[in-house]
Each structure stands twice: as structure tokens, then as C-alpha cells.
Specification:
Largest interface: A-B, 49 and 38 residues
CATH architecture of the largest domain in chain A: 3-Layer(aba) Sandwich
Helix content of chain B: over 70%
Shape of chain A: globular
Helix content of chain A: 25-40%
Number of domains of chain B: 1
Number of helices of chain A: 10
Radius of gyration of chain A: 19 Å
Number of strands of chain A: 10
Oligomer: heterodimer
Low-confidence stretches of chain A: 256-262
CATH superfamily of the largest domain in chain A: P-loop containing nucleotide triphosphate hydrolases
Shape of chain B: globular
CATH topology of chain B: ABC transporter involved in vitamin B12 uptake, BtuC
Number of strands of chain B: 2
CATH class of the largest domain in chain A: Alpha Beta
Radius of gyration of chain B: 20 Å
Strand order of the largest sheet of chain B: 1-2
Number of domains of chain A: 2
Strand order of the largest sheet of chain A: 6-7-8-3-9-10
Largest sheet of chain A: 6 strands, mixed
Chain lengths: 262, 325
């Protein structure tokens, strides 16, 4: 039970709102796990509690057996967990290569004084993460755009940059916050192929999505949240047949009142 | 080769420095150039803290004052060598800047700026009232000149050398994971946190370094004038150097130096002292209106075109269209 990312018994209150009420999720290496739920169901809160952007009131988060509950983002990234943002937060003026290099921060061990004085050790580290960034650009099909400012790319490519930047930290678990939002069908296909490829290479992926059909097609496991609780958990076919899910989530789609993007 | 490209700015600065040093003959202008050079160093410290890390500091001149007093006290009271003074002039502002940043960096940018202004006020009070050490209102005189840079001309060379070294260090930092982290957290702290950057530690280290740059400028000032008084490196100068950095282009390595030269030379040519404030304010408004990125921001596209025309562009980007977009 030590392999994998587990969050159990997660509670978080914001004033009178019980955003998380005994929520739980687990992500296995090499699998894509979907986390779905309607607006306000607590998906983003759970996501932020796992990645250290919010401290949960109670609960426990472990990565491969290591307890990271309540730790800061930098500790969590070092422990092998990286995230992306729902709205990309890339600097439009930075080049694609620099953005990916930024993601390599925890991969370099250059010290502040070493970097300042340009010591050989720091230069060696810089060369090493340069090669790492180039390999990632190649792998995500971004090599031709390496020197282009992120602001000039299409949304589909920006999402790929975000994923490349997140995985650049050497993450074994990747948490994606609505990566397909605002993408065309063709762009979604490229993104899901890349995410599937990451999973096949052993990365555990947690996908927070609104888009139910995308989640059904991409995920090995699905967790459905409702009012901060786990409503259903299991394989996609199983979850899709769950009467509670159909009532709470799919029913809503048929009535057309969710924020689904497609 | 890569190393040379990383150090394009220090190479340019070195070239300009040598040209200046060879062309400048008039003793009055050599004196002006030394003062401008010292201000350029403090402006460079603004470039690092504000232009890169996004921390607006109004304490850069007091950091220089601490450097000047550190070496002055070591020289006058203890008869210590200027090199011992240099160590103090680097360490003391660096430590103070680091600790201050550690305390206030989590606050809103405006609150950080106000905290630096408070620090400036405290430093000034301490300098004015600690008579036995700082000389109080009278200041410290008799700071030993540098034996190996006795004439203004030699001193000018020294100032240029220090500027080039500081720029080289600055560039080293920018080309490292810390430089990228600073640019990310200026743009968006949450983005930097998601990269695994310890935001408080990295910003504080950068702020401490920026204070150290200012401290070195204070050291140069103290040994040049051989006197330092409580009004010499105060809030007025703190604001001037911010203007220099912004006008030259705070996010460009050489921006603050360009701003210091342009403003410094124009100041000398203006007829009346009283016009200075008007001129400063007017220039700032003009720059903020027409060029948010300062003079180098205007020059950059033009410069890039000129460079492309002179140097044939190597085929950097490999076959482009075979990749899906």
C-alpha cells in the first residue's frame, strides 16, 4: 500500500462552507485517475490541499508512503508531485524553453553563491538541466517553438508547455487542473495522447475535469465528488452506470446546466 | 561560446567602460563620471530587486550609506584597511536586506515598499544620533583614500571595474535557476511555488544581494570623498536611483546604467538646481507613458534588427513544419 498517492479523510471548511467533508482519492503510478464533480463539489479544494496550496483542516496525504500533509508546495514538488493550473499562469513574454527550464528548478542543485559566481559546478548543473529541457521539448513536440514567446502559442500548445514544465521537476505524480478547458477537439486529442504516454511511462496522473466524455475516454479510474464527499469511485464504466452519479452529474449535463466545455 | 552569450551585457559594459576611460580627459567630467558610476551601481541594485524580483525598495541609498559608514568606521576608528572595510560594506547591508526581506516578503508589494521606507528612516535616525560611532550630524571625515587608486582618473577605472564585475555576477545569477525563479515569482508567485521554488528564501537572497551591490557603491563613495555624512546617501537618492532604473529599463541588465548616465549627464546640463525635481517627475511620466520598459525597451527591437542585418542569422531552428502545431 506504500506505492501511489493517497489522500484520505480530507476535511476543509471555509467559514460555514464545508468544502471537503471526508473526501478521499488515490492515484496509482502508471494510471490516469479522473476527479470529477459539479462546480462547488470540492474538486479544486481537494486538488489544492494535495498540492500544498491550501492546508487541510484534517486528513492525510501520502506519496509513495511518505507523509506530505500540510507541507508547502516546494516540499511537495520535491517529493515528486507537480501540478498545472486551470488558467495557465505562464509569462507570455518568456520563451517556451525558459518556461520548461523554470520547471527544472528542483532538478538543479546549484547554490545561490555558486550560481552568482559562475562556479564550474553551477555551470555543469545548468548544462544538465538545459539538456533535460531540450529532451522534454522534443518529447512534447515543442522543439520548433523552443525560442518562441509563450504568448504567441495557441492554447493547445500552451497546455503542452504547462505539462512539460510540470513534469520537468521529475514528478512521479502529475496533477492536471482542467487541462482540456478551452481546447479544440484536435488539440484535446494531442493533449490526451501526451497524457496517456506519460502514464505509460509510469507517471501517476490525476485529472480534474468538467468534461465527462473526455474523462471517460482517458481515465483508468474515476472518483466523483459531491458536496465535498466521495459520491462514487471505480472504473469508468462502473461510475458511468452508478445511479447516484447519473442523477447528480450526468442528469445535470442533459439538462445543460453545467460548466462543461464541450 | 555559450558563456560569452550569457555575458553579452558585461562584454558590452566592458567595451563602453574602456571607451569612456580612454576618451574622458576633462577632470571635471571625470569627477562627474565617478559620481554617475557610483549612482549607476545603486541603480543596478534596483534593477536586481525591482526589475527582476519585483520588489520596489526605497532603501537602496541607505544600504549604500551602511556600506559607506561600515568602511568609514573601520577606517577612522580602527585604522582598518579599505579591504576590511569592503567586507563590512558587503556583509552588513546584505544581512540587513536579507533579514528585512525575510520578514516582509509575504506582504503586498506596496507594503514591502513601505517597509523599506521605514528601514530607511530607521537607518537615518541611527546615523544621526549615534554620535560616538557615526559622528552624528557632523559625519565621518578622514576616511583613508585608496592607495592604489589615488587620482580621480585611477578611481574612475576602479569604479568601471566594479561595475563590470557586478554586471557579470548579475548575469550569472540571471542565467541560473535563481534568475528564472525570480522572473517567475515577479510575474506570478503561485506559478513559482508550483515549480517548487522556495519563494521567500529566493526573494530574500536576491534582496540581500541587491543590498550588497548598494553597499559596494557606498564603499566606493566613502573612499572617493573620504567623508560621509548623514545627508549624503538618503531617501532623495533612493528615489533618484529608482527613476534611473525605470527610465533606462529596470528589467534589462544594462537599463539602470543607461538611466544613470542619461539622467546624470542631463542633470549636469540643466541650468538650475530647482528645476531638477520638475525634470525628474516629467521624465518619469513621459517614460511611463511612451515606454513602460524604459529606453532599452525602445531600443531593443531596433537593436535586434541592426544585429540581424550585421550578423547573418544561423539556422537555429531545425526543420520546422514536420512538427505538429
Amino acid at each position: 500500500m506504500s506505492k501511489g498517492l493517497q489522500a484520505i479523510g480530507m476535511h476543509k471548511r471555509f467559514g460555514g462552507v464545508h468544502a471537503l467533508d471526508d473526501a478521499a482519492i488515490s492515484v496509482e503510478p502508471g494510471r490516469v485517475t479522473g476527479l470529477i464533480g459539479r462546480n462547488g463539489s470540492g474538486k479544486t479544494t481537494l486538488f489544492n490541499c494535495i498540492t500544498g496550496f491550501i492546508v487541510p483542516d484534517s486528513g492525510s496525504v501520502t506519496v509513495d508512503g511518505r507523509d506530505i500533509t500540510g507541507a508547502g508546495p516546494q516540499t511537495i514538488v520535491k517529493a515528486g508531485l507537480s501540478r498545472t493550473f486551470q488558467t495557465p499562469r505562464e509569462d507570455a513574454r518568456s520563451t517556451v524553453r525558459d518556461a520548461v527550464l523554470c520547471g527544472c528548478y528542483v532538478q538543479s542543485s546549484a547554490s545561490f553563491l555558486g550560481a552568482l559566481t559562475g562556479l564550474p559546478g553551477a555551470r555543469r548543473e545548468e548544462r544538465r538541466i538545459g539538456l533535460r529541457a531540450d529532451a522534454l521539448l522534443e518529447r512534447f513536440g515543442l522543439a520548433a517553438q523552443a525560442e518562441a514567446p509563450v504568448g504567441t502559442l495557441s492554447m493547445g500548445l500552451v497546455r503542452l508547455v504547462e505539462v512539460a514544465r510540470a513534469i520537468a521537476s521529475g514528478a512521479r505524480y502529475l496533477l492536471l487542473d482542467e487541462p482540456a478547458a478551452g481546447l479544440s477537439a484536435a488539440e484535446q486529442d494531442i493533449l490526451s495522447a501526451q497524457i496517456r504516454a506519460l502514464a505509460s511511462s509510469g507517471v501517476g496522473v490525476l485529472l480534474v475535469e468538467h468534461n465527462f466524455s473526455l474523462v471517460l475516454s482517458m481515465c483508468d479510474r474515476i472518483t466523483v465528488l459531491e458536496f465535498g464527499k466521495v459520491l462514487s469511485e471505480g472504473a469508468p464504466e462502473q461510475v458511468a452506470r452508478d445511479p447516484g452519479v447519473i442523477e447528480a452529474y450526468l442528469g445535470a449535463i442533459e439538462r445543460g446546466d453545467t460548466g462543461s466545455t464541450q | 561560446m555559450k558563456q560569452l552569450r550569457n555575458h553579452a551585457n558585461s562584454a558590452a559594459a566592458l567595451l563602453i567602460a574602456v571607451l569612456f576611460a580612454l576618451l574622458l580627459r576633462d577632470p571635471v567630467w571625470i569627477d562627474v563620471a565617478v559620481v554617475i558610476g557610483i549612482q549607476a551601481l545603486i541603480a543596478l541594485s534596483v534593477g536586481l530587486s525591482f526589475g527582476q524580483a519585483g520588489l520596489l525598495s526605497l532603501a537602496q541609498a541607505p544600504f549604500a550609506a551602511i556600506g559607506a559608514y561600515a568602511t568609514g568606521i573601520i577606517s577612522v576608528h580602527y585604522g582598518g584597511s579599505p579591504l576590511a572595510g569592503l567586507a563590512g560594506a558587503i556583509m552588513l547591508p546584505a544581512l540587513l536586506g536579507y533579514l528585512l526581506a525575510r520578514l516582509v516578503i509575504r506582504l503586498e508589494p506596496l507594503a514591502v515598499a513601505l517597509a523599506t521606507l521605514s528601514l530607511a528612516a530607521i537607518v537615518e535616525v541611527v546615523i544621526r544620533s549615534w554620535d560616538s560611532v557615526t559622528g552624528g550630524y557632523v559625519g565621518l571625515s578622514g576616511i583613508s583614500p585608496l592607495a592604489w587608486a589615488a587620482s580621480p582618473r585611477e578611481y574612475f577605472w576602479l569604479v568601471l571595474l566594479v561595475i563590470v564585475i557586478v554586471i557579470a555576477l548579475y548575469e550569472n545569477l540571471l542565467a541560473s535557476r535563481f534568475g528564472r525563479a525570480l522572473n517567475t515569482l515577479r510575474h506570478d508567485r503561485a506559478r513559482a511555488m508550483a515549480d517548487g521554488v522556495p519563494v521567500v528564501a529566493v526573494s530574500s537572497a536576491a534582496f540581500g544581494l541587491s543590498a550588497a551591490f548598494a553597499g559596494v557603491a557606498g564603499w566606493l563613495y566613502a573612499h572617493y570623498v573620504s567623508y560621509v555624512g548623514p545627508g549624503d546617501l538618503g531617501t532623495h537618492l533612493s528615489i533618484s536611483v529608482v527613476l534611473m532604473a525605470v527610465i533606462g529599463g529596470a528589467s534589462y541588465v544594462l537599463g539602470p546604467v543607461v538611466g544613470a548616465i542619461v539622467l546624470g549627464v542631463l542633470m549636469r546640463m540643466l541650468p538650475a538646481q530647482e528645476l531638477q525635481g520638475l525634470f525628474y517627475g516629467g521624465t518619469l511620466i513621459l517614460i511611463l507613458l511612451v515606454a513602460r520598459d524604459g529606453l532599452l525597451g525602445i531600443a531593443e527591437p531596433w537593436f535586434a534588427r541592426a544585429l540581424r542585418a550585421i550578423v547573418p542569422q544561423p539556422a537555429r531552428v531545425a526543420p520546422e513544419d514536420e512538427r505538429r502545431t
